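Forwarding the complex inputs:
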Amino acid sequence: MAEDRTLRPSPSPLWPGGPTFDEIDPSGAISEAADRIRSTTRGGLLKQAGAGATILLGLHTPAAGAAAPASQKRDRAILNYALLLEYLQASFYTEAERMRALKGALARQAQVVGAHERDHVRSLRAVLGGAAIGRPRFDYRGVTEDPSAFRDTAVAFEDLAVAAYKQQAPRVQSKRLLGALLSIHSVEARHAAWIRYLAGRLPAPDAFDEPMSQRRVVAIVDDTRFIVAPAKTSGKKRPRFTG
Amino acid sequence: MIGEELTVEVVAGNADHDEPPRRTRAEVLERAVVAGGALLAGGVLITGLPRLATSAPSPKQDAEILNFALLIEQLQAAFYAESLTHGRLRGQLRQFAEVVEGHERAHRKFVESALGSNAHGPPRFRFGETTSDPAKFVAAAVALEDTALAAYNGQGPNLTAPTLGAAARIVSVEARHAAWARVLAGQTPAPVAVDQPAGEGQARAALKRSGLLGG
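Prediction (whole assembly, two chains):
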């Protein structure tokens, strides 16, 4: 694979000496998709500082509050991480629908998948209750207004979500929660196959899908600069049902 | 588990061209009251997924579950291999069968090598016309892939973490196959927001109903 086709996240003090992207993503499927996000993002708009996901998930500093047992705290952190990825996807599809730039099969995909991602957001928020992170402010930098940029971004988002959920599943302590995350994980994989098909790419490019670490996923998300500001409020006061 | 109907729409194949169910706010709230409040959200009850029989994970249990996974992979690999041997598939269906056959063969070898001498041999499969008639092939492929991923999802919480990690590398590929088969069958690739897991008995029953697994 050519050097410039691989997304190389900026060096992070959080993870010195970590594996290279090629080690994690040997087929290049995710990096290729993520690379497309970059190439379709409007360069001129890349002014604001990124690192939104890093800040939002509190990856800089140790989490406050040591009351809950470690296993519960870990499950909660995993859920909030999943919630961030679902916010990122849900807002993307919602905005794409509102822009009305998509037609035919692509419009149908955005409609169905957007509804799923919004359901995932509501479900995760309901489970997290007051511990849920708020929805950040997003700027998709034009990719929701152009069908081919939308399609490439959607491929990247869905493949990334599959890899992210896959990494977290074996770490979950609660069996019921694990069952729920597995059931979302496979739906993200269906979404990935669907949009890949519409993009003229193999829906299932490899016999095995590889997991991806949270740090790597967050670095990719930060690199897109789609997250422009963390939410001003936490999820505490939000109504549970916004149907 | 046997006797419980598998309510996965995907297996029944009855939700294909319908719009995803839209509930009114009142219906959502009503269901929330029935469900006891906080767990229901926007029509997706993730914490209300069926509670399948679970037991404490152990290496011995992993081996039992992996033998069930092996049966599914043997079945899938044999199904696609026989379909390609018959040579009736053309175009996108043929490409699908070729790519997926390679994946299922890799999965079968992977699970076989994980089990080592504990691996069970494959039973005799009889696929009938599902491997020679393209329309029947694609319908069977949808049922097979949807059931495979539901079965993996159902067993996930029973596995030890390392085995779960390995199974998770397979299950999303089965989900991709399912979505791909559904596109080719003219069905919605992702019919629900949260895939329903299936217990072993439910999965076996679904495969029997599809004519892919004998009594």
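Residues 59-86 of chain B form the longest helix (28 residues).
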